[in-house]
């Protein structure tokens, strides 16, 4: 078991290094790789509080860029409800089924992003009601897997926000929802046993950010993104493979 948690440390370092390079969500990477070795319900109380550290810093740093109307008017109401629903559903889901559902989500997201990059597809705006419905589904995904990003980015495709404002708004979403999930983990008793792992993994965030900043200046970000999505395609396939459910 100690070797499994040591391997998770490597996945966390990789995830935060890649996020510092590309801005891509660290939890999706760390959870998809970690779920190959450990149950999702054991990983979430460790990965979610760690993410608060980075997103909290980014929210404060880019607070002037947050679109509060979009955040409070469309995203958070639906996603908070969805997150609480997903959190309530997780204990009722079989561990193997949870892993398979997450694998399907990862496969869809990675495949969609690779297709979008290949075709330079530009999404059109959707009706507000449909975006709210997708945001609710993103919240359920976040409550189940702390990975609402793929669906929320899909919901926000076609918005008129520039890249900087969209990123700042999304970071504030993850900080808010992960703070909510951390509170839930504290109330249900799962946070306290995870504190030793959280404390031991915390320095990896700083190392990952430093490595990412260092590598960002030397390599093409587009190539890193392609490598990440290919990695997620393989990982998603492994998560839904029959032998991974034993």
The count of strands amounts to 0
Distance between the termini: 17 Å
Main sheet record? none
Relative strand content = under 5%
Overall structural domain count: 1
Element pattern in H and E: HHHHHHHHHH
Kindly state the percentage of residues in helix: over 70%
Question: Given the structure, what is the number of helices?
Answer: 10
Helix-strand layout with pairing:
Elements: H1 2-22, H2 26-34, H3 40-61, H4 68-89, H5 95-119, H6 128-145, H7 149-156, H8 163-188, H9 191-216, H10 221-240
Helix pairs in contact: 1-2, 1-9, 2-3, 3-8, 3-9, 4-6, 4-8, 5-10, 6-7
Structure described in brief:
The chain is mostly helical.
Report on the structure:
The chain has 246 residues and is mainly alpha-helical. The protein has one domain. 80% of the residues lie in helices and 0% in strands. It has ten helices and no strands. Helix 1 crosses helix 9, helix 5 packs antiparallel against helix 10 and helix 6 packs antiparallel against helix 7. The longest helix is centred in the C-terminal third of the chain and has 26 residues. The radius of gyration is 17 Å and the shape is globular. The two termini are 17 Å apart.
Give descriptors for this structure.
mainly alpha, 10 helices
